[in-house]
Amino acid sequence: MPHAGCIKSCCKDLWKKPEKHLKVSAIAIIDPETEQSWMIDATPDFPAQQQIVTKEYQSELKGIFLTHGHIGHYTGLMHLGREVMGASSMPVYAMPGMKSFLQNNSPWEQLVSLNNITIRELKNGEAVKLTSGLSITPFLVPHRDEYTETVGYRIDGPEKSLIFIPDIDKWSKWKKDIRDEVTNVDYALLDGSFYANGEILNRDMSAIPHPFVTETMDLFNSTSTTDKSKIYFIHLNHTNLALKVNSVAFKEVNDRGYRIAYEGQKLKL
Q1: Which residues of 186-199 are buried (b: 16+ CB within 10 A; e: fewer)?
Q2: pLDDT per residue as tens digits for the range 201-260
Q3: pLDDT tens digits along 4-26
Q4: Cβ atoms 143, 168 nearer than 8 A
Q5: What is the CATH number of the domain that holds 262?
Q6: 182 occurs within a structural domain
Q7: How far apart, in Å, are the Cα atoms of 202 and each of 6, 139, 198, 205, 238?
Q8: Largest alpha-carbon pair distance within the chain?
Q9: Model's pTM, two decimal places?
Q10: Looking at the 3D structure of the chain, how many domains does it have?
Q11: Which residues are CB-neighbours of 21 under 8 A, at least 6 positions away?
């Protein structure tokens, strides 16, 4: 943020304050021992995020894992093409539908034909070994799959594990129980796009379904304090009141035992 075309209080004062701008949600896996890294999602902010991962953390980018075909999650791949980086066979990990989308639609198919990227097909529930102590496993989640399927990821490190679900329609639509999934990991980065219903006044929010932060907190209301503390809300929309650390919404999230993820946050695996 700021968000294109937004003149609300959440964005209007940010245009002249670039130091307060926030990047589109993404995460990276960085192995300090091998000095290798992998990004999950290629966002419109890919240039800055790739710079952070490779230069600030002095790592070699070994691949990009995609969650789905919505613009905030794959369009950064354009920077790998001959008009920018001219990458050579950068591994891009994608589910079958996402793979087909990239191979059969311009300009993305040019990345394939020019060997800027090499698409490595993922299978639901099948782990990919990154290093001797790191693996990542995709799992399907229900979302607005207009173009591709949608996945979250489980990342297993030498000591701890994490699930990453930036987009899902509603927890009730998933065949799995998110409460069980959180119990079985150490960290859970969960879709926190919208804080509550009615947040976007001029849009029918049922057309862009996400679990509201308030819904997720209520769902976990009777779970242990330990499990609640594992949950980090991510992928917050520019309208989300919990983005502001001095807001009532931010305070409520923390008071109820949950967390709001922040840019540059590190979680040790």
Answers
A1: bbbbbbbbbbeeeb
A2: 777 777 888 999 999 999 999 999 999 999 999 999 888 888 888 899 999 999 999 999
A3: 877 777 766 777 778 777 788 99
A4: yes
A5: 3.60.15.10
A6: yes
A7: 12, 33, 9, 9, 15
A8: 53
A9: 0.94
A10: 1
A11: 1, 2, 14
